Amino acid sequence: MKAEVVCTTDDPADTLENHKKLKGSFEVTILPTFRPDNVIKTEDPVKFKAYIERLETTCNTEIKDFSNLIGALDTRHKFFHEMGGRLSDHGLDRFYYAPFTASEIDKIFKKLLKGEHISEEESEKYRTAAMTELCRMNHKRGWTQQFHAGAIRNNNARTFRLLGPDTGWDSIGSSQDAFRMSRFLNSLDDTEQLAKRYFII
């Protein structure tokens, strides 16, 4: 097929151990793609907390507040960059946008760390803040960001039970909330931090 480059999909908490083994030893260039979806999955606080603990282990750092979280993610983003990664991939049910303050986001994040459920309004604010910071990282390092907007997850219940999530049984769903998409992208462009991007909608 004359493929020159293959990009895998990798969570920020992944060690990229196999990439290290393949680097420079394979005829096709294999590069990681940054897929931080688990950072915005707030529906189940227990799973969210378990994911943050996994990220802590990979980063060898304690994550007590939102600032710690962004610092840990930026450390992983830098590592992916050093491993040749230049792409981020975001599977969103839709774009998120709600005005927020730093103190609000910190309180919301700490509630999640305690295993507490958050309101829809709090979730919208947290997801907006987290996605904003992730997109700023992409801009800072000159990456391209891809948005799978309107993703419907795990359509095949039987296969989900057999293989688990993220095994190829997703599809594209409803159209986007144009206002939220516009406000989110504009907030990044307004500070000149909007990275190269493309959409699958």
Question: How do you describe this structure in short?
Answer:
The chain has 201 residues and is α/β, with parallel strands linked by helices.
Word description of this protein:
The chain has 201 residues and is of the alpha/beta class. Helices cover 45% and strands 16% of the residues. It is built from seven helices and seven strands; from the N terminus they run βαβααβααββαβαβ. The strands form three sheets. A three-stranded parallel beta sheet has the order 3-4-7, with helices on one face. Strands 1-2 form a two-stranded parallel ribbon. α1 links the parallel β1 (5-10) and β2 (29-34). α2 crosses α3 and α4 crosses α5 (120-140). The longest helix has 21 residues, at 120-140. The chain is globular, with a radius of gyration of 17 Å. The two termini are 27 Å apart. The mean pLDDT is 92.
Please render the helix and strand layout as text:
Elements: E1 5-10, H1 17-22, E2 29-34, H2 45-59, H3 66-82, E3 87-92, H4 102-113, H5 120-140, E4 144-149, E5 151-152, H6 157-163, E6 171-172, H7 178-190, E7 196-200
Parallel strand pairs: 1-2, 3-4, 4-7
Antiparallel strand pairs: 5-6
Helix pairs in contact: 2-3, 3-5, 4-5
Key terms:
single chain; 201 residues; alpha/beta; two-stranded parallel sheet; globular
**Topology pattern, helix = H, strand = E:** EHEHHEHHEEHEHE
Low-confidence stretches: none
Please tally the helical runs, counting DSSP H or I stretches of 4 or more residues.
7
**Which structural category fits the helices and strands?**
alpha/beta
- Estimate the helix proportion, in percent: 40-55%
Strand content: 15-25%
Mean pLDDT over all positions? 92
